[in-house]
Amino acid sequence: MAIRKLKPTTPGQRHKIIGTFDNITASAPEKSLVVGKRRTGGRNNTGKMTMGYIGGGHKKRYRIIDFKRTKDGIPAVVKTIEYDPNRSARIALLYYADGEKTYILAPNGLEIGTTVMSGANAAPEVGNTLPLANIPLGTVIHNIELRPGQGAKMVRSAGTFAQLVSREDTYAIIKMPSGEIRKILATCKATIGSVGNSDHGLEKSGKAGRSRWLGRRPHNRGVVKNPVDHPMGGGEGRASGGHPRSPKGLYSKGLKTRAPKKHSSKYIIERRKKK
Question: Of 191, 223, 229, 259, which has the fewest CB atoms closer than 10 Å, so is most exposed?
């Protein structure tokens, strides 16, 4: 996956850097794996705005992704690599030997025509899904489950990967993309390789309109609002706004937000690195 910088023929093109889409092989998704997607516009069930700066955007259809990979021992052939508007990564359409079709996240290096498989007996190759107990130490992985059979919850964004560091008893020690080192049950599944579209972080939209297409409305700072709208608002001239707070008055810088008695804390060996 490469990126291309456009010539400044218009103000919107001047700073625009986008992906090349050269590895995408299909323009229309598989109909049986697509469902409608409703937008909330940031409103709750009574119509009250509970999240700001959300609204508009292009209409999307949701592609059903197989995060569980439960069809163990059945080979599947990669038919297409497709764009998914609901995530930063690309997706791959699999045709299983028994006739079923599913989408998975497309890892780096996955080519059309490649055969992938899941299960304890699968080879540790790119695109294959195995229990952490069967993956060689030092392997780069993504799509990691937190509980056996739950489906992948972690390391799903474009270009991300984790690493299997070691094993202790029934647990595998994983180094996460954030630098956090944590324990996960070795019976949980993970997929070999790193998530594709690794140049996604280098992209620049080039104009405000592209944010509107994504459903993001203009975001204005708290200090420029009125006191009735934000704790940091008001004052004569350009007031500093006082202590940084959220719209609900909670401190937004320096205050620890993780629950002190959170269940998963005992599985974290080393916290993520602070910037």
Answer: 259
